[in-house]
Specification:
Keywords: 4Fe-4S, Iron, Iron-sulfur, Metal-binding, S-adenosyl-L-methionine, Transferase. Catalyzes the methylthiolation of N6-(dimethylallyl)adenosine (i(6)A), leading to the formation of 2-methylthio-N6-(dimethylallyl)adenosine (ms(2)i(6)A) at position 37 in tRNAs that read codons beginning with uridine. The protein is an alpha/beta fold. Helices cover 39% and strands 16% of the residues. It folds into three domains: 113 residues, Rossmann fold, CATH 3.40.50.12160; 107 residues, Transcription Regulator spoIIAA, CATH 3.30.750.210; 112 residues, Transcription Regulator spoIIAA (2-Layer Sandwich). The longest helix has 19 residues. The N and C termini lie far apart (51 Å). The structure holds iron/sulfur cluster (SF4). Iron/sulfur cluster binds next to α6.
Amino acid sequence: MRYNTLVKSQIYFIKTFGCQMNEADSQRLAAALTGQGHRLTSQIDQATVVVINTCSVREAAENRVFGLVEKLAKLSAKSYQPKVILTGCMVGSARGKRRRYTLTQLKNRLPQVKEFKTISELVGDYPLPVTRPCPAEVLVPIMEGCNHFCTYCVVPYARGAEVSRPLDALVTEVEALVKQGAKAVTLLGQNVNSYQPDFAALLRRLQTINRLQKIAFLTSNPWDLTDEIIAAMRGPKVDRQLHLPVQSGDDVILKKMNRPYTAAAYRQLVAKIRRAIPEIRLSTDIIVGFPGETRAQFARTVALCRQVGFNQAYIARYSPRPGTAAFRLADDVTPAEKKRRWQVLEALINRGKI
Ligand code: SF4
């Protein structure tokens, strides 16, 4: 680790919650720790150090972290006493401007945790250490943070404003990963379309790397997905699976979510992508039961999903997150109705039953 906290050769276990950004951070952490002579274990009860990489997007994810720490405390009573380090979005949130809890409150709630550090405090900034041997499929963050402030989302508070990694450094890193055995890369960012200086240019440069077979990316939102990016996506190595969160098919709800597009604009964008890349497969994110969402508004989401024909969807039942703008809105769709709406979309998209 970057700071001098781990002495001698430790056996470490990393538990990762949340999105692929966190998975990528955990890969980076593991590469750094292994490079320093510590050994990774897949058995938490054999670890002398447990790193918990947290997610604060949903309350349930935070509760799982609290539950895991409590479980470790109970194990500790039976003479198993790993050093517990907390990292990831909960630590970032606790230090942010619109935090829901302070670091002191987090420390009081989790007295078993010895260190609260962000990932950069643990492993420093980029470039990433390259693991040897490298897995065939690697996650490569190309940017951090988000500038968009969708009203339900804590990410801009937890991860800060968008910062892109330099294009040349990314190309060099992917070349090194390919030399170590990587065949596929997934480029990660909260909104890869806004990668600076130019996401299309990055895709084109990565296409030229010999022996790299596949380039995927996450997440591409419906704004800033320019014609140039779509043209670059036609490159033979770019994955034909595109994740394009729609969140709702109703314009009023989209506006309340601060998503800067209409349902019609989303449909037109999908049509344009399909004209350019007919074999593309689309997945999406949808939130059901956003504050004030009526049955008629939900029906517009269902209609949009039928028209677009997503091959997969991550459907979330809205839950208010303190610190976000939507937290001030009445959470007025009942849990039973949220569940019903979730089931309708789950059956329609993920089980193809309707
Ligand atoms: S684009 Fe919206 S949903 Fe995605 S991370 Fe940014 S604020 Fe959150």
